[in-house]
Amino acid sequence: MTERMREPSGQTVGAGALLTILRHGQARTRAELVQLTGLARSTVSQRLDALLDQRWIVPAEEAISSGGRPAIAFAFNRNARLVLAADLGATHARLAVTDLASTVLVERAFDLAIDRGPEETLGWLVATFREMLAEIGHSVAEVCGVGLGLPGPVEHASGRPVNPPIMPGWDAFPVPDWLGARLGAPVLVDNDVNIMALGEHWAVRPETDHLIFVKVGTGIGCGIITERHLHRGAQGAAGDIGHIRVTSADDVVCRCGNVGCLEAVAGGAAMAVRLRQAGETAENSRDVVRLVRAGNTQAVQLIRQAGREIGDVLASIVNFFNPGVIVIGGDVAEAGEHILAGVREVIYSRSLPLATQHLGIRASVLGDRAGVVGAAVMVIEHVLAPEAVDLSVAG
Amino acid sequence: MTERMREPSGQTVGAGALLTILRHGQARTRAELVQLTGLARSTVSQRLDALLDQRWIVPAEEAISSGGRPAIAFAFNRNARLVLAADLGATHARLAVTDLASTVLVERAFDLAIDRGPEETLGWLVATFREMLAEIGHSVAEVCGVGLGLPGPVEHASGRPVNPPIMPGWDAFPVPDWLGARLGAPVLVDNDVNIMALGEHWAVRPETDHLIFVKVGTGIGCGIITERHLHRGAQGAAGDIGHIRVTSADDVVCRCGNVGCLEAVAGGAAMAVRLRQAGETAENSRDVVRLVRAGNTQAVQLIRQAGREIGDVLASIVNFFNPGVIVIGGDVAEAGEHILAGVREVIYSRSLPLATQHLGIRASVLGDRAGVVGAAVMVIEHVLAPEAVDLSVAG
DNA sequence: TCACTTATGGCGATGGTCAAGCAAAAGTTC
DNA sequence: GAACTTTTGCTTGACCATCGCCATAAGTGA
Question: Which pLDDT score is estimated for B88?
Fold first, then answer.
């Protein structure tokens, strides 16, 4: 049973809170921390000793000496632990080992058939992670957590997929238990779009509390961040904008059975179909991007129109949700400015001035690495949460 | 400087947390609280003494005695303080004095011209509140907070209106300072739609964490609650769904200058205009409701169609946000099932099954009292927040 | 009425934090 | 190299919230 000081505000200040200050700011001396927290010097020293014991922090370079003994600055130790992160798609996978600042240390991309089921897929995942750890000369013992993104709905609290349409055999599979037993670390699982949103939010942070990440790939989905947390909705189904109806496509039938879905006109698969109808060779969304980059007029017109359709849906969402930033990512977004131009065009003409005056609409800065970075961020925020750190230094 | 026990989970357990347990549950004995919190018996007793001193709790009836000395149960004292709540509209106002459980003790409705400016309006408000307090034989000293809803955008943190379109003279007026100086209690201000959402959420709680309240009056707006908190968005402009574009109205010009806005086809003012064009007598949204209730075919058709248009917009929002409950309120919603039927019809046909299977779509249960109840809830949640209670018992 | 059961209040013990002070360390300035 | 400045580590005593324990109060059942 430990006790804690309270700031005048009523906020507890433990070792975890101290670490949070060091993690989000730069290196700090003891005197600065006393100033910031209001704790006694001796208490700060004791907290720092506990954090040093667990290697969460390291002494950094010395501060400016103003004529006396220079103070030692302490900095967050991003190398204290390792994080395993994976972004599994329907046909591709990207794995990474990162440090505690989400910096990727090793990274690999693979072709992967996720429909082979959870045991085979996750078994391969464990083996590959072990290889990657060996490659950089680290052991599994240093891993503090595993983050995983899956291409379907996931109940985040339990980490189990729920009725995933494209992952046969994965329904309700206890991913965290299975992986945790083999890697000896906590495992966090979420939808792939959600972790991409986390990754992009990390990349633009701390600019905004309200971010919407739109993934335009084979289908279309989005991740919603509000007050620095993912919004998952009542059934965990939030962000499914691919099947919102758009005006100009009442005659198009979507794979979901409805007509006029956004995905059916602006999704990568739908665009590939249209290009094939126009005589081009286009199997999937990547081929669409290839054609756009090659300057194919049909493809450019198509993607520009897709941008407008997406912008139409987002214009409504901007009025409703008032985000600070919209990030467009996914395979198709790699076609560059064409799609973004369409989105901007419609949003700025349709949404209210108050909501758009400070709204940023931009392309993903992480590209196809958003998923693994987000998976790492998810783990890091969990492991380095003040309460978790307090427990770790108490044990 | 006070210190606090921590649960194994790392959560602090102070007097405020204890009060929260009593407030949301029923009366509890000391033994039950020991069980629930993990604190020592003596600590629980001390916390309860502090809460008794401040009259936050009262001893309740005795629990079942299982053959020994009967335990005293303690219950939240809803009469410990009073709350002043007001919902100011463009032309109407509703004032209430409530207890700490949001129960209305006195209530009055008035006609009010808010465009007379803040000083005159708020001066009248103070005088009327004093009258109402005298009426039930209580003094201003017992008031622990004032909640106020205004018909325009409000920066909640400062309580100041920001560029309100229909409140001349109110821009940036320091409402909390002005009222606080005269009533001697903290003042919280917010947009009227937001406080109505709070009120309705309170009415259905704890059924859902994610609620959307749609106000259909002269215009159309909505309040968004997620994880038991209002979502205000990056600029505080969230919920402005009245100017989302709907498909079937490309030719209708809205007062905002755009074409095809939801408000321009489904708002009360727009419907009144259409009824006038059809030869009926309809000045405002209340007249529309009157005609609907009278069974006027034109009006019924119009409102049913309005429901479908609103449903069209909400269907997109359901896919995006995945709320647990949608509540339809405001003047026009009092027309009853006609509007709700249209909304349900479209949402259930357009939104995804996963998002709609447990979705409740219902009419406001509080009606025109949603505003004052919500204003009271806003104050109560602020005053009875654990940290605030901890400070009050420490002082 | 008496034994039994259970809740309650008071007391000392425990342990973490704070404030203060001192000596040593590690620089700067002259 | 000496004087000065500032940080740091360590110790001490006081403080206070919490805990565990015990005597007492207040019922029940035979």
Answer: 97
How high is the mean pLDDT of chain A? 91
- Asked if B359's CB is within 8 angstroms of A316's CB, the reply is no
- Chain B nearest C-alpha distance from A93 (Å): 26
Which of B107, B123, B131, B170 lies closest to B370, judged by CA?
B107
CATH 1.10.10 fits A15-76, yes or no: yes
C-alpha span between B352 and B354 (Å, rounded): 6
pLDDT tens readout for residues B60-90: 876 666 777 888 899 999 999 999 999 999 8
Question: What band does A255 get if pLDDT is binned at 50, 70 and 90?
Answer: confident
Of residues B378 and A390, the one with the higher pLDDT is: B378
Q: What is the secondary structure of B232-284 as a DSSP string?
A: --TTS-TT-GGG-B-GGGTTPBPTTS-BSBHHHHHSHHHHHHHHHHTT----S
Question: Helix, strand, coil shares of chain A as percentages rounded to 5?
Answer: 45, 20, 35
Option in A229, A239, A324 nearest B320 (CB): A239
Domain B82-196+371-394 = CATH 3.90.960.10: no
Residues A319 and A350: their CA atoms lie apart, in Å, by 9
Write the DSSP string, B55-115: TSEEEEEEPPPSSSSPPEEEEE-TTSSEEEEEEE-SSEEEEEEE-TT--EEEEEEEE--GG
Q: Average pLDDT of A23-33?
A: 87
> Rounded distance, CA A315 to CA B182, Å?
43
Is-contact B174 A375, C-beta < 8 A? no
Does B205-364 match B15-76 at the fold level?
A: no
| CB-to-strand D contacts below 7 angstroms | A 1, 3, 29-31, 41-42, 45, 66-72; B 2-5, 14, 38-43, 46-47, 65, 67-70
The answer to whether strand C lies under 7 Å from the CB of residue A5 is yes
Nucleotide nearest to B44 in CA–C1' terms: D18
Query: Is residue A191 within 8 Å of residue A153, measured between CB atoms?
Result: yes
Contact B350 A245 (CB under 8 A): yes
Q: What confidence tens digit (pLDDT) does each residue in B277-294 have?
A: 999 999 988 999 999 999
Which architecture does CATH list for B205-364?
2-Layer Sandwich (3.30)
Which bases of chain C are contacted by protein, using any atom under 7 A from a CB? 4-11, 16-21, 24-29
Q: Of A1, A244, A355, which has the smallest distance from its Cβ to B319's Cβ?
A: A244
pLDDT surpasses 50 at B4: no
Rounded to whole angstroms, how far apart are CA atoms A200 and A225? 10
CB contact under 8 A, B234 and A317: no
Chain A residues with beta carbon closer than 8 angstroms to that of B7: none
Residue contact A1–B6, C-beta within 8 A: yes
Instruction: For residue range A169-196, list pLDDT tens digits in order.
Output: 999 999 999 999 999 999 999 999 999 9
Mutate to test the interface with B, among A322, A346, A384 (most CBs of B within 10 A): A322
Domain spans, chain B: 15-76, 82-196+371-394, 205-364
